[in-house]
Design a protein that fits this description.
The chain has about 90 residues and is of the alpha+beta class. It has five helices and four strands. The protein has helices at about 15-25, 30-35, 40-45, 70-75, 80-90, and strands at about 5-10, 10-15, 60, 65.
Length: about 90
């Protein structure tokens, strides 16, 4: 039987993301989503490092370029989270 790969965080070895979540008092599902869906490093996901901006491309809407996406959300009085979710789900 093969041994699972150990994960080193802040100089300590962990067996799983669940173990890391418990050690850093982060919800296990939140940690998993940040790492797998959002592409954050484990250190970013548990709060040791600030997450790096991932999408720096300007977005064009109705002929106007917005950079960053938060500017578009602000222009239309919509929260960034809602706008991001809608774009992820394919809204145009």
């Amino acid at each position: 039987m093969a041994h699972a790969k150990k994960i080193i965080v802040d100089g300590k070895s962990y067996k799983s993301l669940a173990e890391i979540a418990r050690a850093f008092d982060v919800n296990e599902r939140t940690l998993h989503n940040r790492v797998s869906r959002s592409g954050w490093s484990i250190e970013e996901a548990i709060g040791l490092n600030s997450p790096k901006p991932r999408n720096k491309k300007p977005i064009s809407y109705k002929g106007v370029k917005y950079d960053p996406l938060t500017a578009l959300a602000k222009a239309y009085d919509v929260s960034y989270q809602l706008l991001s979710l809608r774009l992820t789900r394919g809204y145009t």
